[in-house]
Design goal:
Elements: E1 6-8, E2 18-23, E3 29-35, H1 38-42, H2 44-50, E4 55-62, H3 73-81, E5 86-91, H4 108-120, E6 125-134, H5 136-147, E7 152-158, H6 165-168, H7 179-188, E8 194-196, H8 206-217, H9 222-227, E9 250-255, H10 261-272, E10 281-286, H11 310-333, E11 344-347, E12 353-356, E13 365-372, E14 384-387, E15 395-401, H12 417-420, H13 425-428, E16 433-437, E17 445-459, E18 463-473, E19 479-490, E20 498-509, E21 514-520, E22 546-552, E23 559-564, E24 572-573
Helix pairs in contact: 3-11, 4-5
Length: 576
């Protein structure tokens, strides 16, 4: 049967915008939409004559079609223009209506500079520019910071990171192959269009499934080839790193359920401790995922799905855009004092919005739970114990990893994790998964900060993966993920203790619930299973089951460490 795919081209131009083809330094022209405040857009010559036609501009540079329903910028622009901002939305080089080669990352710094320079030479510009956007169009903001155009005054990167390589390979660690994340380039970075198709992620060798797709399309993805089957390590910031550039005010917008929150929070934590940058770092952190679905609505009903329901979209967009607009009112327009912005505004999931002067909030404390009673770890939840004290004698237990029968992810799209919000209890009950939990809490347990797991694990395989998920175990037995992390380990090079960074969260474990931890050796189809032979998982044809042994107690203190909000925090905020 021929390989089936759908080609997605550019959507019709927005009625409330004017498109320009903006020339970059090398002569390539990038398709750029300009939205102006309505009165001035209707009669721009008269506004110019009255001297009331100059606005600060908010620039967005993205690869997902500036006119698509997916990014809804015709809707978002109205929220900005109603507050007196020009909005400039540009297809990046090689995507949709823009010219040039379809290669991510490498030209974004120069093109960001060129776009800003074009803006400030327009009659409607007052010479001040901010940037806004999610994911890749959060990255393009950091690339523009590295170019150091003097007109760039503030940025609002959402659900992103300054260096995408830290998603695939966090510094100092090896990570399992995040198939879902790398596959993104095979869909969106082939040529000007995007391509929808389904891959059999269980077929071997896995890389052949993508080769079939590229043959059918008649083109291939340059950046996918740099990541698979071997990670070439080419920098996504080939010039000056933005953190070494001139500091600009930053509002970091993160989602506690975003699948790349750990990478974004590493950026925030680093800059919040850097002289020069620290004074202009701000954090907005909500109980949302990468696609802006909310914990309060999970799992998402049809009437609340902003991806398909126009009323739901209208309800979602103000919460999405207004924090950025308020930030720009301070740092672009200068009409509000800096003191009007909290340094940190964060949501405690299942509770309320709060503000604080730092993250984690002042007077937060760490609490350690020790993995004990391992004889019960292979049972269903509640499983073994997360105890307040370690055991004196060493204990161990085992779990199996079979690459041909991997632990299921239960979802195929972790970018929209809260849309489905799967119950992990069936996964925890598998005999190739370990489960641990605390006693039932008798008062709320408020998590607010980083979470980490330190484990002592050995394996019969030359290379193995460990997946850890911190879970809210409900009184009725349902188990929902709070945060997660994973690591790939080469047995010959393994340290005695393996650390997993599970990112940050703000989450209330409610009275009557338990905090739980589940450990596994795979998470498919989101991640490629380790073949158990030491071979490259992209190209492996054969597999070999393995056994992992978890040690705890004595000289092997395996443990979970969480950050707890102080008993009394800054007063709750009325909203986002």
């Amino acid at each position: 049967m021929p390989f089936s795919f759908e080609r997605i081209g550019a959507a019709p131009l927005a009625e409330n915008a004017r498109q320009y083809l903006v020339r970059m330094r090398d002569g390539v022209r990038l398709a750029t939409d300009v939205y102006l405040p309505a009165a001035r857009q209707d009669d721009l010559p008269a506004a110019r004559q009255s001297g009331d036609a100059a606005y600060p501009a908010v620039l967005v540079r993205l690869p997902y079609d500036k006119n698509s329903r997916y990014v809804y910028f015709d809707r978002i622009a109205r929220l900005f223009t109603d507050r007196g901002y020009a909005v400039v939305v540009q297809d990046v080089r090689g995507k949709f209506r823009s010219g040039g080669s379809t290669v991510p990352f490498l030209r974004e710094s120069q093109d960001g500079y060129g776009a800003i320079d074009w803006i400030i030479h327009q009659d409607w510009s007052d010479g001040r520019v901010g940037m806004f956007g999610d994911s890749y169009y959060g990255f393009t903001q950091w690339a523009a910071v590295a170019a150091q155009h003097p007109a760039l005054r503030a940025i609002v990167p959402r659900m992103t990171t300054a260096d995408f390589n830290t998603i695939w390979q966090p510094e100092g660690q090896s990570a399992p192959v995040w198939l879902e994340g790398i596959e993104y380039f095979a869909h969106h970075w082939v040529d000007n269009d995007s391509y929808e198709y389904r891959i059999d992620r269980s077929g071997r060798p896995v890389i052949d499934q993508y080769e079939e797709a590229f043959r059918a399309i008649g083109a291939r993805s340059f950046w996918f080839d740099l990541l698979a089957p071997r990670h070439a390590g080419l920098s996504t910031q080939p010039g000056l790193h933005p953190f070494d550039a001139r500091p600009v005010p930053v509002l970091h917008c993160v989602g506690w359920f975003d699948n790349i929150v750990a990478a974004h929070m590493r950026d925030y934590v680093e800059l919040a401790s850097r002289p020069g940058w620290d004074a202009v770092q701000y954090l907005w952190a909500g109980a949302v995922d990468h696609e802006n679905y909310r914990l309060a609505q999970a799992p998402v009903r049809d009437e609340d799905d902003h991806n398909t329901n126009e009323d739901a979209l209208a309800r979602m967009l103000p919460d999405y855009a207004h924090p950025a607009i308020d930030f720009f009112d301070v740092f672009l327009k200068g009409i509000r004092p800096v003191s009007s912005l909290p340094k940190v505004r964060w949501e405690l999931g299942h509770a309320d919005w709060r503000t604080s002067s730092t993250w984690p909030p002042p007077h937060s404390t760490e609490r350690t739970f020790w993995l004990t009673d391992l004889s019960r770890a292979t049972g269903p939840l509640p499983g073994a114990s997360l105890a307040d004290a370690p055991v004196g004698d060493e204990q161990d237990t085992q779990w199996a990893h079979d690459p041909d029968a991997p632990v299921p992810s239960l979802i195929e799209d972790s970018f929209a994790y809260l849309h489905g919000y799967p119950d992990l209890a069936p996964v925890a009950a598998r005999d190739d998964v370990l489960a641990f939990s605390t006693p039932v809490v008798t008062e709320p347990l408020d998590l607010a900060g980083p979470i980490g797991v330190d484990l002592h694990v050995t394996s019969t395989a030359p290379e193995f993966d460990v997946f850890a998920k911190v879970v809210d175990l409900h009184p009725d037995g349902r188990a929902h993920q709070i945060t997660r992390g994973q690591v790939s380990v080469r047995a010959a090079e393994a340290a005695d203790e393996i650390h997993l960074d599970l990112g940050h969260t703000g989450y209330r474990l409610r009275t009557g619930h338990r905090l739980a931890l589940i450990l596994a050796g795979s998470d498919h189809p989101l991640f490629l299973p380790a073949p158990g032979t030491g071979e490259n998982p992209w190209t492996a044809l054969t597999t070999k089951p393995s056994t992992q042994t978890l040690h705890t107690g004595g000289t092997c203190p395996s443990r979970l460490t969480v950050t707890l909000a102080p008993a009394t925090t800054t007063s709750p905020s009325p909203g986002v």
